[in-house]
Design a protein that fits this description.
With 405 residues, the chain is of the alpha/beta class. It has two domains: 5-181 and 342-404, Quinone Oxidoreductase, Chain A, domain 1 (Alpha-Beta Complex), CATH 3.90.180.10; 182-338, Rossmann fold (3-Layer(aba) Sandwich). It is built from 13 helices and 18 strands. The protein has helices at 61-65, 114-117, 131-137, 167-170, 182-192, 208-219, 232-241, 254-261, 281-289, 296-304, 326-331, 343-355, 373-382, and strands spanning 14-25, 31-40, 48-56, 76-77, 82-89, 101-104, 107-108, 143-144, 161-164, 171-172, 200-204, 224-229, 244-247, 266-271, 305-313, 335-338, 366-369, 390-393. Strands 3, 5, 6, 9, 10, 17 and 18 form a seven-stranded mixed sheet that branches. Helix 5 crosses helix 6. Residues 1-6 and 277-291 have low confidence and may be disordered. One of its GO terms (molecular function) is oxidoreductase activity.
C-alpha cells in the first residue's frame, strides 16, 4: 500500500506561548543555543510530543556542522538521537501513552507503505517529500530528524521537546539511547555483510558506529577483527573490545599492511568512515574541485577483501565519487551492499541482547548538558580530549550515566 507523500507535514507547528531550549544550526561551524524557541505541538493524529531527557551528537551531525551537506536552513534544530518521556499523543496513537519512557528512532517511517511492510523502514516512501532527493537518487528516502530539508526538514532532537510523527512505529518504550541509532547501525553493517562465525572482518573507521560494528562482529562470532583508524583513543577502545588495530597515519599503505595481517584477504570489509575520509592528496584535490564524496577507504576495503568477499557501506555517502574500482568488484566476484539502518526492524532483538550484557556498547566518553552542545561540537569535530561519544542530558536533573534516564 502506497500513500501520497505530499500529505506528510514536515514543517513544525509552534506553540506561541511556551518556549524551550534547542540547538540550532546557523551556518558553517555555527551552532547556537536558543533558549526561547517555540515548542512543537501535535499536527497529525498519529503524532506524539516527547520531552527529551537525553540526546547525543552523532558523527554524521558533523557533516551538518561543517556545512558539507546541502539543504540546511538557518535556525534549523539539529540532532537525531534521543530519548525522553511522552507528554502528549494524537487521537490515533494506539500503543504509546503519556508518561511512557521512550527511545526515538533517528529515521522516520510511516509503518504502512510498501517498504515499511517489508521492514525496510529507512526506505519509507511517505515521510520524505523532497523532490531533490527523488531526482538525485531516482526514488525517495525516509525522513530523518534534524538532518536537512533533503531529509524532510524535521526539527531535530537536540531540544527540550520534539514532535514525533507516526509515534507508534518511531518510538520504543525503553531508555537505552544507543538503540536510537548507533547500536542498530552497527548491527545493520554486520547484517548487510552477513558476518558469521569464523569470518575475518576488517572495519574502516572507529567512531561510535565503527566501534558498535566491532562489538556486533565479535558477538556474531568473527574469528578476527581488524580495525583501521588514526585516533589513538579510538584504536585503544577497538582493541579493548577485541579488535586488532592499524593506524593509517603510521601505516600509509593499508592494502599491503592488511596482507601482512591476513595474507589470504578479509572475508568481510565494513566501511564506517564515510565520505569525509580522504587518505590521498589526489582525493583531497578532487573533493575540492570535482566531486562530493571520497572513496579512499572504500577503495582500500575492496582491495583488501578476498575473492568472493562481502563489503557493507554504513558510513555516510551522499553524492558522486570518481575512480570507483568497479572492475575489482566485478573481477573479484564481490558483493557490495549499503544503506541506512532500519532501526525499528532490530529493536526487539537488540534490546534483548544488550540487556543481557553480552556485548560491549559502553561508548560514552563525555557527558554534559544540552546547553553545552556548541562546546562539544567543537571538541568532537577536532577529535580532542579523547572524545568518542558525548551524552547531553536535558532538563534540571542531570546524572552521569545515560542508562539512568
Amino acid at each position: 500500500m502506497n500513500s501520497n507523500p505530499a500529505t506528510i507535514i514536515t514543517e513544525p507547528a509552534k506553540n506561541l506561548n511556551d518556549t524551550m531550549i534547542a540547538v540550532e544550526w546557523h551556518g558553517n561551524t555555527d551552532i547556537r543555543i536558543n533558549t526561547k524557541r517555540k515548542r512543537p505541538v501535535l499536527i497529525q493524529p498519529t503524532d506524539a510530543i516527547v520531552r527529551i531527557t537525553g540526546t547525543t551528537i552523532c558523527g554524521s551531525d558533523l557533516h551538518l556542522y561543517k556545512n558539507e551537506i546541502s539543504g540546511m536552513e538557518k535556525a534549523d534544530v539539529v540532532g537525531h538521537e534521543g530519548m525522553g518521556v511522552v507528554v502528549e499523543v494524537g487521537e490515533k496513537v494506539a500503543n504509546i501513552k503519556p508518561n511512557n519512557r521512550v527511545v526515538i528512532s533517528a529515521i522516520i517511517a510511516c509503518g504502512h507503505c510498501e517498504y515499511c511492510q517489508k521492514k525496510m523502514f529507512s526506505s519509507c516512501d511517505v515521510t520524505n517529500p523532497s523532490k531533490e532527493i527523488e531526482e538525485l537518487y531516482g526514488h525517495r528516502t525516509s525522513g530523518t530528524f534534524g538532518y536537512t530539508h533533503l531529509a524532510g526538514g524535521y526539527d531535530g532532537i537536540q531540544a527540550e521537546y520534539v514532535r514525533v510523527p507516526y509515534a507508534d512505529i518511531n518510538l520504543l518504550q525503553e531508555k537505552l539511547i544507543l538503540l536510537s541509532d548507533v547500536a542498530c547501525t552497527g548491527w545493520h553493517a554486520n547484517e548487510l555483510s552477513e558476518v558469521s562465525k569464523g569470518d575475518i572482518v576488517g572495519i574502516w573507521g572507529c567512531g561510535p558506529v565503527g566501534l558498535s560494528a566491532i562489538s556486533w562482529a565479535k558477538y556474531r562470532g568473527a574469528s578476527r577483527i581488524i580495525a583501521i583508524d588514526c585516533i589513538p583513543e579510538r584504536l585503544a577502545k577497538a582493541h579493548d573490545i577485541g579488535a586488532e588495530t592499524i593506524n593509517f597515519k603510521v601505516h600509509k599503505d593499508i592494502v599491503n599492511k592488511m596482507k601482512e595481517f591476513v595474507p589470504g584477504g578479509l572475508d568481510v570489509a565494513i566501511e564506517c568512515a564515510g565520505f569525509r575520509c580522504t587518505n590521498t592528496f589526489r582525493q583531497q584535490v578532487e573533493n575540492t574541485l570535482l566531486e562530493t564524496d571520497s572513496i579512499d577507504t572504500l577503495d582500500e576495503a575492496i582491495r583488501c577483501v578476498k575473492k568472493g568477499g562481502r563489503i557493507s557501506i554504513i558510513g555516510l555517502f551522499v553524492g558522486m565519487a570518481n575512480h570507483f574500482p568497479i572492475g575489482a568488484v566485478m573481477e573479484k566476484s564481490l558483493t557490495l551492499r549499503g544503506g541506512p539502518a532500519p532501526m525499528q526492524k532490530y529493536w526487539v532483538q537488540l534490546l534483548t541482547i544488550m540487556k543481557s550484557n553480552k556485548v560491549d556498547m559502553n561508548l560514552f566518553t563525555h557527558h554534559g548538558k544540552l546547553e553545552d552542545a556548541g562546546k562539544f561540537y567543537k571538541i568532537f569535530d577536532k577529535k580532542e580530549d579523547g572524545i568518542i561519544k558525548v551524552f547531553l542530558c536535558v532538563g534540571d536533573q542531570c546524572e552521569s550515566h545515560p542508562e539512568k534516564y
